[in-house]
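Record format v2
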Amino acid sequence: MDEFISLSYGSGGKKTSRLIDEILLPALSNSSLSQLGDGALLKVSEDIAFSTDSYVIDPYIFPGGNIGKLSVCGTVNDLLMCGSIPKYLSLSLIIEEGFPTEKLKEVIDSVSIMAKASGVQIVTGDTKVVDRGHGHGIFINTAGIGERVKGISYGKENIRTGDMVILSGSCGNHGVSILNAREKLIETEILSDCAVLMEAAEVMFHYGNKVRILRDPTRGGVATTLNEFTENTPYTIEIQEDKVPVDGEIRTACELLGLDPLYSANEGKFLAIVDPGIAFEAVEALRKLGICKNASVIGEVTELMPSKVLIKGVLGGRRILDKLSYDMLPRIC
Amino acid sequence: MDEFISLSYGSGGKKTSRLIDEILLPALSNSSLSQLGDGALLKVSEDIAFSTDSYVIDPYIFPGGNIGKLSVCGTVNDLLMCGSIPKYLSLSLIIEEGFPTEKLKEVIDSVSIMAKASGVQIVTGDTKVVDRGHGHGIFINTAGIGERVKGISYGKENIRTGDMVILSGSCGNHGVSILNAREKLIETEILSDCAVLMEAAEVMFHYGNKVRILRDPTRGGVATTLNEFTENTPYTIEIQEDKVPVDGEIRTACELLGLDPLYSANEGKFLAIVDPGIAFEAVEALRKLGICKNASVIGEVTELMPSKVLIKGVLGGRRILDKLSYDMLPRIC
């Protein structure tokens, strides 16, 4: 392999084969991928979930992860949020000409580590190289297939008055981490929360349809995801400001950087709307997992203002918490 | 919608919702996509094929198609080549800031038209916007799921001595079309062969395992795909130069542009290795379809030089036809 990726690595010819044989297959090898056909042949259950995301994060290596780790975590988490066990991923790379081969190895190693940790196989893929100045280092797309857990059917149509809102941990870390990595406004490194939610989702699967809906508040943060839950429904979500877990350093950084943790992206957290009867028990179970140690009930479902999300401040005042409507931070995932 | 796509359309907030509601859903709507969850919930048969490709073609609108048409045809064809009936696609967009909204509509309309023509549904997706100078107009990733046709198991391990090689139509059109669209070396427009191979593949499915393997010769062209068939096998593929169908205008353009049609990409053709007993019958059946009117038996499987592809010229001499090893043309798909 050359020291830098040139256009010929994306030509479909000999150099593409070398890239596959020397970097991709050694890290990701499994029986499906190794056949290198036009696609992978798989056995799955009849009920599946199918999800995709393209990752264009800048910088592609950030405190707590890199684009390879993120591209597995993101799609695996989306499949979990659908109530499915992630099984298979595709991996498609768009590399800018001149990208260092060593960095590509680093990114692919992270893909490999996270895939193993999540119990998924990378079964098919694609590599394209774009000319210098027409990409940005590396973009990655993953698509994934999960097998649906029997007896679970998440969806906002299940939400009803009295349900409670769980946030699985402190919010805003990923967005703040990326902004700080980019702008270097604060000297201390702020870690992204980028993580696979497998164990945490399994805790929730245990409660069957007493969990109404799960979703990971990535772009747009907690506020935007809560609005997606109430949009076009007769319900209101009311959250209590002082119940929303925010890490001390994130709170400080948000004040300095002019960010709102409720709109800042997360990559290792979920929101759940649940039957009130299981809310506190579920939170207790979640807290036993390292990445959910700050899991909390942050609010409830009411009918006060249909389709709206309200936040109650510590002094008792209520205000509407709208969807993200401006560019807080582009290219965070 | 604004006249041009700005970064906020990729923020996950209100503008992302507008882009989805005003452009994507009206063109692509179906019950799975409309739920806009983290993924689509699908019912499939137990044996599936799974494939992905990212499309970075330059220019994104070309004679005979655009990146939207290509991104459906390419993945649908890959699923067909696996011996499966394409059912579901994901669609993920990476748009460069400043991309004209009208062009985005045009691309998405093509996605919609080709998806309908192929009988597939776009069930899940993602939109990212990258800052100006860090992308190139629009990149698209599609991943697809197909249901395997019972009784078919394609693979190079099925190939045996005496098998025949079918090319489903004239070769080299897509690559030549794109080079000419980019460099404008020849005044007449040369059309890409970009097309869905559904009907043509169904002809081949009819012959069960008498078809050993199917593959569409995209990047690297016919020569590279034939080499993929023989690589690491004891077999040789010998093709006859005068049997390879090449359109007159492609032949002329190749001479002018310094291209070799055998290495030039195709986006609506396949190569098949088949039992000699069905080869000519299959070609007759293929020729009844418009896009396969030039289908031909172009060679056979021998054991003359293990793992190599040989081409016999009209004067009888044989030479080795290697894999593509240099950059004939970057970003053709």
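Chain B has a mean pLDDT of 94.
Chain B touches chain A through 84 residues (CB under 8 Å).
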